[in-house]
Amino acid sequence: MEAGSTKQLVRDGLFSLKTEVKMENRKMWFSVTLLCTLGMQQVLAAENVKGDRPNIVFILADDLGWTDLGVMGSAVDTAEAKKLNLAQGVYVDDVNAVSPAFKGGMRTADVILRIGDNDVSTPAAIKETLRNYQSGDTVKVVVSRKASRGRNKISLKVTLG
User: Are the beta carbons of 93 and 123 closer than 8 angstroms?
Assistant: First the structure.
């Protein structure tokens, strides 16, 4: 396995994952901007009528990691899997140290093969599979981990946060 090939795989995977996240963030920020604009219009209209300043608190939060594994990963397709001697799945680029995945035993450079009864091959497939679970559920995650001789399949139990 060439070090340059692995770096390219990680770079390409991170780029596609970051692009996907950026698109979702754009949608979220557009919605937030629209809501804030409409809210401020109401505040200004109320201020013109009453003259008193209203007390307003904006609370903005995402799902706060609800059914999130806490990993960043990139898809490993068939050609890359053969070339780099990896299993086809989602290569784990990074694991958050306080995430459910880390607490369940997942590590950087693992390849996620299966979550529950579903094979996963892309970060989007992981996200879609996790929608079937709720916070607090324990899910079986099968990963391929580098060993002294090749790779081993390991079954982890991850409790979603």
Answer: no
Q: How many CA atoms lie within 13 A of 42 on its CB side?
A: 9
Task: List, run by run, the mean pLDDT of 10-residue segments along the chain (161 residues).
Answer: 51 48 58 71 62 67 63 86 83 90 93 94 90 90 90 92 76
* Strands, E assignment, 96-137: 111-115, 118-119
Residue 103 CB-density burial (10 A; 0-12 exposed, 13-18 middle, 19+ buried): middle
> Identity (one letter) of the amino acid at 91?
Y
Is the model's pTM score more than 0.70? no
Q: Which residue, chain included where needed, has tokens 């306080």?
A: 98
The two three-digit tokens of residue 113, written as one number: 């093969």
Which helix (H) or strand (E) element contains residue 75? Answer: strand 71-76
